[in-house]
Write a structure and sequence with these properties.
Elements: H1 70-75, H2 130-135, H3 140-144, H4 155-166, H5 175-178, H6 181-189, H7 192-207, H8 214-228, H9 253-257, H10 322-335, H11 346-353, H12 357-368, H13 378-390
Helix pairs in contact: 4-7, 6-8, 7-8, 10-12, 12-13
Amino acid sequence: MYGGPPLAPPRGPPGGPAPYDAYDVGPPAAYRPGPGGPGPYDPYGPSDPYPPPRNGMPPMVALPAAHMGPSAAMHGHGDLLSPYAGGPAALQPLVPVPVPGQYVPAPVAPPAAMPGYPQQPPVSGRRSYAVDQATMGIRVTELHGMSVFAEYVHPAPALKLQQLWDGLGGAPNRLVSLLDDRSWEVLSDLAAPEALAVIDQVAEAMSRQELRNPNAFFMSCAKKYLQAMPPAPRGAQQPMVPDMGEYGRAPTQMDRMVPLAAPGHWDAPLQRGPPAPPAGGMSGGYEYDYGRAPPARGPPGGPPGGMGSPNGGISGLEILPEPAQQRAREAIARHYPAVTEATFDRGLCEGIRRLPYEDTMAVFDELMSADMSAVRNVTAYVMGMVRKRGR
């Protein structure tokens, strides 16, 4: 019973009680209850699950699990011997051995971003000149911040723009900071000699302070070079709509976002040659300016008169030159449905046609950047822009 003399003689060397070694005793005597006071041993207590070693050798319950499998080693089943034979050398951890004929690709780390280069989405069908531009001493971080197309401009014209900005050989010229995305895109389409010629023409006109709209003059200078270029090869992925590129350029992402429309709508390709009169529409045959007959069109869809058009929805875009027609379609694509083809009625287009080329492009630039959410009569709004420049 607790507190009485032990039922078995003390184990250990003679000459006093053996130190606590937890092999066949329970908790220390100080934790044992009993009226007789604590004793040195308790043969009825549970054994210590983690006994200390005796004479440098651990007890059997604490043998290393080198001879046991993973499950037996985890749960401490020392009696479950491994079926492997051959001694400890045969029981070393297995090393994966490739199976003959089996190909395991090595992991490849993704390419790291080059420092100093802005991460911009690639433009389909264009070559990146970023490394060549940096090699020629161009400050690519500043240049690529101008436009997403700046990376695809040949290094020679890109260096020319930087030299003009730095004022090398003359007064500083800020042309590089005035070009819009359309001009950068055209510049990336031009070869190096043509691009340098266009930059020289625009920079010379700017030095004489003759330009109010450098981008419009830039496009007029680049037009003759782009029209002489062969058409760009098509890639595997065709655009969703017919070509709407201006001056021979490839369609932009905005062009591809415009849904397909039936022939005669504003995003259908212009009809060349003598038109055939459509059913219920107007017959062609009248000679207009620029030596061509207008394409045959019926009244476009939508409410009569469109957005503020007083002529029953009949467009007058046919009397405009090709660059102005293209800018009008870009404005329609940007502000649709506030701006439609019917917005450009005959009276508005007659006023646009009388403007000089630079003023015409300035009207469309202002229209592209305008907020149409509060405009009720778009035709009158654009006519105000025309009258302001026609005075």
